[in-house]
C-alpha cells in the first residue's frame, strides 16, 4: 500500500467520524487520489442517471451519456427496450457513436467498420470470412452497463452486477420522486437536449447544494429577490422540511403549513395543470405534500439533482410559474465538473405553458440565469481550498453542524406521511451529513458488498413499505 | 442571413454606420456601461438568443437544436439582468470579469424590410476573472438585425452561434 492510498483512507475515516460531529475535511473537494477512488467505488458502482425516456421516444433513438468519465450510448432498440452500451468498439476500443443524439439502426466503427445493432450485437464486419474465418460474432458485441432500469421515466444504469435493484437503491427517495414526476397520468417530458458547461469545481459541491443548501439563498441569491424573480419571501421560504430520504439521498421542501395559505401551491405549476393532478399514480398523502410545496430540491446519490419551484425571468412582465429542471454533476477530474442541465415539464401543459416554463427556467436556473450565475462562484473556490496544501497540512475541517441537536431552531419531525428522517425548518445540514456518511461507506465497501440502504433504527419506514 | 439579399458593401456610408454601431456597442459592453447599452442601442422589441448546440453528423447540419437555448432574452429579461448587476449582490460579475469583445468579418445586407439591416460578424469574447491568467474564450458567429428607430440603429435581433457544444466558462452572466 502506498502512502497515497493511506492518505485517502485517512480522509474517508475523517468523513465518517466528522459527519456525525458536523465537520468534513476540506480535502475531499480536491484530493486526486480520492477522486480516482470515486470513479471506481462511487461512479463505477452506484445507479447513475443517464437520460429521460422522453429523449429517446422512438425505436433507434439514442443519446450519448456518461457514467463517471466514460461514454455510454443510451439507445432504444427495435423491441422498444432501452440499452446502455459502452461506446468502445470490441476490436480496438474505438468510439462508435460520434453524435450527441440521433436515430439509427446500427453503429458503425470508423476504424475497420465493425457494425453493431441497437442491442450492441456485432452484426457485420468487412470481409469477415477472409479476415476472421468462421469466428462467431457472438461475444464480440459492445459491452453493456451491468443493469439498466427506469423510474418515473428517469433512466439509470449501473456498472456493478452486485448493485441492488434501482427501486431498492432509491429507497425512500422514490416516494419523493413520485410526487414531483407522477402527479398525473401523463407524466413529465424533457424540453429539449441538455445544456452542458464545464466548471472548475468538484462534483460534490453540486450534489451537496441540491441535497438542501437553503442557507445560501439569503446571501448568494439575494439579487433574485431584489429583481422580483421569486415570489416567496426569504424567511418564509426557509420554513419547510429537510429530509434524508434514505442513506445518501436527500431533499428539501419549502412548504406552506397549510395549503390554503396564500402563495403558490404545487411548486408554482399552473393552476389549470394542477387540476389534472390526482391519485392515479400516487397516494393522497403524496398529493397533499406536493400541494403544499413551493420549492422542491433534491439529490439522488451520487450526482443526479432536480429542482421544482416558481420562477420568472422578468418579474415586471410575467408572474412566476413552476419550473422543473434536472441535472447531473458529471465528474471531470478532482477540480472539474461538467454540469448537464435539462428543463422538463408535464406532458399535458399547453405549448404556451411549456414555453413560459422553459423561458422562466432558462432565465433563472441555467448558467445564464439570474439564480444560477452566482452558484458556481463559491464552488470554484471550494475546490481551490480542497486541493490546497494548506488544507492538508492544517487538517482543515469545514463546519457542517447546522441542525444538530441544540444547534439552531431546526427540530426532528415525528408526524410526517413519507419515509426518511425529517427536520422542520431548512436551517439544517443533516441532509449534507447524510450525503457524506453514505459517500464514505460507499467508498470503503469492498467490491460485491453494499452499505445498508436503510437507516438502522427506522428501516421499516423507508423503501418498500412506504410504496404500499 | 439570406445570401440573395443585396450586400451593403464596405465603400458605402451605411456600412460605415453599421461598423461604427458595432464598435460603439463593444465599447459600452467592455466598459460595463450595460444600462447605457440597453437604453440607447437595444430595441424594445429585441430577441436575443444563444441557441443550444449538439455534435451531429454533417448530414444533419450544424447541430443547433430547434427551440433550445443557453440564453433567450427579451427587453424585459435583459433589463432584469442589467438591474441585477446594479444590485450589490450580483456576485457572478462583482468584482466584474475583464471582458473584451473582438468583432471581425462584418458583413451587412439589406433585408425585405426597408428599415432593417442584417449583419453577420465573428465574435471572440475574451474573459478573465479575479487572478486567472488563462482566459476563458468564447468564439461565435453573431447574426444581428439592426432596425432604424427614430433615426438611429437599434438591435432588433441577435443570434449568437457558439463554436462550442460544451461551454467552457463558469456562467453566462455576460453580454455577447
Ligand atoms: S477498432 Fe472498431 S473495427 Fe477496428
Ligand atoms: Fe444556489
Helix content of chain A: 25-40%
Q: What is the succession of H and E elements of chain B?
A: EHHEEHEEEE
Strand content of chain A: 25-35%
Oligomer: heterodimer
- By DSSP, the count of extended strands of chain B is 7
Structural class of chain B: alpha+beta
Distance between the termini of chain B: 18 Å
Work out the helix count of chain A.
16
Mean pLDDT of chain B: 96
Mean pLDDT of chain A: 94
Query: Mind telling me the C-alpha Rg of chain A?
Result: 23 Å
Extract low-pLDDT stretches of chain B: none
- The structure class of chain A reads alpha+beta
Q: Report the largest inter-chain contact.
A: A-B, 44 and 39 residues
As residue ranges, the low-confidence spans of chain A are 459-468
Bound molecules: FE2/S2 (inorganic) cluster, fe (ii) ion
The strands making up the biggest β-sheet of chain B line up spatially as: 1-4-5-6-7-2-3
Largest sheet of chain B: 7 strands, mixed
Strand content of chain B: 35-45%
Q: Care to describe what's here?
A:
The complex is a heterodimer of chains A (468) and B (176). By secondary structure, chain A is an alpha+beta fold. Chain A contains 16 helices and 22 strands. In chain A, strands 12, 13, 14, 15, 16, 17, 18, 19, 21 and 22 form a ten-stranded antiparallel beta sheet that branches. Chain A starts with a helix and ends with a helix. Helix content of chain B is 22%, strand content 43%. Chain B contains three helices and seven strands; from the N terminus they run βααββαββββ. Chain B has a seven-stranded mixed beta sheet with strand order 1-4-5-6-7-2-3. In chain B, a hairpin with a 5-residue loop joins strand 4 (98-110) and strand 5. The longest helix of chain B is centred in the first third of the chain and has 18 residues, at 13-30. Classes of the chains: A alpha+beta (468), B alpha+beta (176). At the A-B interface, strand 13, helix 8 and helix 13 of A face strand 3 and helix 3 of B. FE2/S2 (inorganic) cluster binds at residues 89, 91-92, 94, 109, 111-114 of chain A. The site of FE2/S2 (inorganic) cluster has 9 residues of chain A, from loops.
Amino acid at each position: 500500500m502506498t502512502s497515497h492510498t493511506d492518505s485517502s483512507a485517512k480522509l474517508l475515516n475523517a468523513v465518517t467520524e466528522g459527519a456525525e460531529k458536523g465537520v468534513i475535511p476540506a480535502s475531499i473537494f480536491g484530493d486526486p487520489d480520492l477522486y480516482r477512488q470515486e470513479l471506481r467505488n462511487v461512479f463505477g458502482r452506484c445507479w447513475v442517471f443517464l437520460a429521460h425516456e422522453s429523449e429517446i421516444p422512438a425505436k433507434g433513438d439514442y443519446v450519448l451519456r456518461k457514467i463517471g468519465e466514460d461514454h455510454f450510448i443510451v439507445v432504444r432498440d427495435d423491441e422498444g427496450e432501452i440499452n446502455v452500451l459502452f461506446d468502445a468498439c470490441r476490436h480496438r476500443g474505438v468510439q462508435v457513436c460520434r453524435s450527441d443524439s440521433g436515430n439509427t439502426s446500427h453503429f458503425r466503427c470508423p476504424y475497420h467498420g465493425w457494425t453493431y445493432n441497437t442491442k450492441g450485437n456485432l452484426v457485420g464486419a468487412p470481409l469477415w470470412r477472409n479476415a476472421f474465418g468462421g469466428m462467431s460474432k457472438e461475444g464480440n458485441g459492445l459491452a453493456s452497463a451491468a443493469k439498466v432500469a427506469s423510474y418515473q421515466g428517469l433512466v439509470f444504469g449501473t456498472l456493478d452486477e452486485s448493485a441492488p435493484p434501482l427501486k431498492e437503491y432509491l429507497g425512500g427517495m422514490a416516494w419523493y420522486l413520485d410526487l414531483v414526476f407522477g402527479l398525473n397520468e401523463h407524466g413529465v417530458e424533457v424540453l429539449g437536449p441538455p445544456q452542458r458547461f464545464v466548471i472548475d469545481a468538484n462534483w460534490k459541491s453540486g450534489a451537496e447544494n441540491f441535497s438542501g443548501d437553503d442557507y445560501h439563498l439569503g446571501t448568494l441569491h439575494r439579487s433574485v429577490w431584489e429583481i422580483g424573480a421569486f415570489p416567496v419571501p426569504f424567511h418564509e421560504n426557509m420554513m419547510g422540511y429537510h429530509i434524508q430520504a434514505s442513506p445518501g439521498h436527500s431533499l428539501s421542501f419549502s412548504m406552506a403549513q397549510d395549503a390554503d395559505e396564500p402563495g403558490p401551491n404545487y411548486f408554482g405549476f399552473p393552476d389549470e395543470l394542477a387540476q389534472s393532478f390526482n391519485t392515479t399514480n400516487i397516494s393522497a398523502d403524496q398529493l397533499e405534500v406536493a400541494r403544499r410545496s413551493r420549492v422542491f430540491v433534491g439529490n439522488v446519490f451520487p450526482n443526479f439533482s432536480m429542482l421544482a419551484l416558481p420562477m420568472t425571468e422578468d418579474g415586471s412582465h410575467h408572474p412566476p410559474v413552476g419550473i422543473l429542471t434536472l441535472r447531473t454533476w458529471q465528474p471531470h477530474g478532482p477540480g472539474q465538473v461538467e454540469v448537464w442541465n435539462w428543463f422538463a415539464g408535464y406532458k399535458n401543459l399547453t405549448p404556451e405553458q411549456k414555453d413560459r416554463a422553459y423561458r422562466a427556467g432558462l432565465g433563472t436556473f441555467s448558467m445564464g440565469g439570474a439564480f444560477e450565475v452566482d452558484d458556481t462562484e463559491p464552488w470554484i473556490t471550494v475546490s481551490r481550498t480542497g486541493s490546497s496544501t494548506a488544507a492538508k497540512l492544517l487538517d482543515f475541517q469545514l463546519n457542517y453542524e447546522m441542525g444538530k441537536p441544540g444547534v439552531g431552531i431546526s427540530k426532528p419531525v415525528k408526524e410526517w406521511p413519507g419515509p426518511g428522517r425529517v427536520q422542520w425548518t431548512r436551517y439544517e445540514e443533516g441532509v449534507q451529513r447524510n450525503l457524506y456518511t453514505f459517500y464514505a461507506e460507499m467508498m470503503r465497501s469492498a467490491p460485491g458488498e453494499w452499505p445498508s440502504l436503510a437507516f438502522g433504527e427506522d428501516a421499516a419506514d423507508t423503501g418498500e413499505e412506504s410504496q404500499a | 442571413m439570406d445570401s440573395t439579399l443585396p450586400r451593403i458593401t464596405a465603400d458605402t456610408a451605411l456600412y460605415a454606420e453599421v461598423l461604427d454601431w458595432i464598435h460603439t456597442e463593444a465599447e459600452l459592453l467592455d466598459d460595463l456601461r450595460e444600462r447605457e447599452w440597453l437604453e440607447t442601442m437595444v430595441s424594445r422589441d429585441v430577441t436575443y438568443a444563444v441557441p443550444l448546440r449538439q455534435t451531429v453528423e454533417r448530414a444533419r447540419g450544424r447541430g443547433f437544436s430547434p427551440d433550445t437555448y443557453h440564453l433567450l432574452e427579451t427587453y424585459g429579461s435583459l433589463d432584469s439582468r442589467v438591474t441585477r448587476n446594479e444590485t450589490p449582490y450580483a456576485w457572478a460579475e462583482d468584482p466584474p470579469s475583464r471582458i473584451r469583445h473582438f468583432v471581425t468579418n462584418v458583413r451587412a445586407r439589406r433585408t425585405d424590410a426597408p428599415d432593417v439591416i442584417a449583419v453577420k460578424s465573428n465574435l471572440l469574447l475574451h474573459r478573465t476573472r479575479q487572478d486567472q491568467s488563462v482566459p476563458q474564450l468564447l468564439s461565435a458567429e453573431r447574426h444581428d438585425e439592426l432596425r432604424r428607430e427614430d433615426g438611429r440603429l437599434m438591435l432588433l435581433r441577435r443570434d449568437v452561434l457558439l463554436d462550442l457544444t460544451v461551454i467552457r466558462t463558469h456562467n453566462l452572466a455576460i453580454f455577447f
